[in-house]
From TrEMBL, chain A:
Cofactors demanded by this protein: [4Fe-4S] cluster
CDD domains referenced in this protein's UniProt entry, alphabetically: IPMI (cd01583)
Pathway in which the depicted protein is active: Amino-acid biosynthesis; L-leucine biosynthesis; L-leucine from 3-methyl-2-oxobutanoate: step 2/4
Keywords: 4Fe-4S, Amino-acid biosynthesis, Branched-chain amino acid biosynthesis, Iron, Iron-sulfur, Leucine biosynthesis, Lyase, Metal-binding
Family, similarity comment: Belongs to the aconitase/IPM isomerase family. LeuC type 1 subfamily.
UniProt cross-references to Gene3D superfamilies, sorted A to Z: Aconitase, domain 3
Protein's recorded name: 3-isopropylmalate dehydratase large subunit
UniProtKB/TrEMBL annotation, chain B:
Keyword GTP-binding: no
InterPro entries: 3-IsopropMal_deHydase_ssu, Aconitase/3IPM_dehydase_swvl, AconitaseA/IPMdHydase_ssu_swvl, IPMI_Swivel, LeuD
Keyword hit for Lyase: yes
Function according to Swiss-Prot or TrEMBL: Catalyzes the isomerization between 2-isopropylmalate and 3-isopropylmalate, via the formation of 2-isopropylmaleate.
GO CC terms, sorted: 3-isopropylmalate dehydratase complex
NCBIfam families according to UniProt: leuD, PRK01641.1
Designated name of the protein: 3-isopropylmalate dehydratase small subunit
Single GO term (MF): 3-isopropylmalate dehydratase activity
Amino acid sequence: MSSNPKTLFEKVWESHLVAEPPNEPALLYIDLHLVHEVTSPQAFEGLRMTGRKLRRPDRTIATVDHNVPTTANRLIIEDAIAAKQIDTLRKNCADFGVELFDVQSPNQGIVHVIGPELGFTKPGMTIVCGDSHTSTHGAFGALAFGIGTSEVEHVMATQCLPQSKPKTFRIAVEGELPDGVTAKDVALGIIGRIGTDGATGHVIEYAGSAIRSLSMEGRMTLCNMSIEAGARAGMIAPDETTFAYLKGRKFSPQGEHWEKAVAEWRSLASDEGAKFDRELIIPAIELAPYVTWGTSPGMVVAVTDVVPDPAATANDADRRGFERALEYMNLKAGTPIEEVTIERVFIGSCTNSRIEDLRAAAKVVTGYHVHPSVHAMVVPGSQLVKAQAESEGLDAIFREAGFEWREPGCSMCLGMNPDILQPGERCASTSNRNFEGRQGRGGRTHLVSPMMAAAAAVLGHFTDVRTWEFKKEEVLA
Amino acid sequence: MQAFRTLTSGVMPLDRVNVDTDQIIPKQFLKRIERTGYGEFLFFDWRKDPAFELNNPRYKGAEILVAGKNFGCGSSREHAAWALSDYGFRCVIGSTFADIFHSNAGKNGILLVTLPEEQVQTLLDRAAKNDGYRLTVSLEENTITDGQGFSTGFSIDPFRRYCLLEGLDDIGLTLRHTGALDTYEKQHDAAFWVAPRAS
Ligand code: SF4
């Protein structure tokens, strides 16, 4: 045991301190700044107004994801305001020398999908983006967090950010995850336990044998939803799984640099005996496939449960929120979740649109067809994910089963493009937020894993994937 | 940025928990490239309900908002802070706030005051029941009073307080450390294992 044991977070934090002025937040250096069309225009404009330069274009990359249509003819954007915002990003990137993965780029995709898959995201980095789900990149042992537009401008101008040191929260999931229980369920299970403000002011480090056994895709799903637990960021110590994922990626270190980089990354794990401000241990066996029933990700139960009763809530304010949510969702307390019928299914978003997510969903739908009263779509997270899925024949499985197969983007995760729910429509969604109107005004969102969404698409109502009858893959041939 | 010192104003109670930034400013208004003009879209969907607090003439002109716990959760959109400030709110009182919203509010001269849940409930009740209810929020004294017996102190991060009191531009403050930054950056650029692109 080292004499001064440190957490993963502390190691990354300390190696990025530019200055620690007395009685002020520390100044933290930022290694990678990810930019997209929605939260950047006012920041670039700020630079222009103050005559400031973009300090490190080489540490800045941009993509278009939130607004872009996901239909085949996506080069023409009918929404004039959205088109202008995208054009503005193009102009800003050209003016300030930022590499942009534009709509027609083979590397375009959701910002939190392309950063890792291209190898921009690396262990030990500090990463920011004007988007709360930047926490995704913590899956690699990076300190990654979302920022507002004023901070985007700040990073552009100075490549650093004043930050008060967050607290640390270790969440260990121990044991083997039951079949049918995915990283998404781990995330929902944690949020259900600690609440949507349970980790406010903290950086979570996920640990334990169940976390170690997750793939990088699963780790990204989990870290992605840290923000839904209120956390500043989520992190997982890099290990062999991480290195295997990174090796050979477009912007990963190559040749002799590779071994040296791995040695550096290996040293990032929390030291034995390192102190966390809070700790929580969850036995993996207690977790189940989850479905949210309300308008906050913390309003979640196991698929085998019923819609809970507000009367059981002790706190008045919480109970009113509870009742409001049931009303909005048009659900009655006591209804079994498996009897809740849906009209829409969305498989996509920076939470669950990576290749493994699509494989898992495809496995469920193989040999089945989407229920006649359901409209289901799959939106791959990036062009690379889409190409990979197509090379594996997943698109054919989805299409044959009656899913729409779309072009990459945020799509119905927040419905800034034309992909939205109609008022009253109920959707099984693999995204991360079930807020009122998130997927379209009056739309009702139930957050689930890709497998659970796929199974709901087939049956037209929720079902426990642990009992799913998987069909042979003969259609694959 | 507008400095915040002492504010006496009407109070709008918003007795809801987990008010997320999607409610404060829905997505369709995030397509704009300007920083101003979001006030008219504040709580756009909720506002369609005539009974919603923002439509109650009693709270017209209120610059202080009191809300339930975890206000500002969800998306990082600074548009939420822009919409609140553009509408005229300069202070939000609640029992907890989401981290990113906290920072966004500060950058836009909005003071967030954290009080214990019972005190927040008292203010929610008083604002809803008493016509013409007013509060005085003093950042100079770190106090809130209503002239009807409610009086409390509050604590706030000293640096955030200083920036709000002085209306300071963050970037300007960071640029005081340019020397340290240059030195750090020179040495840090050698760490290729944390460079975005492999060398
Ligand atoms: S997929 Fe959804 S949560 Fe992810 S970046 Fe896009 S809009 Fe945000």
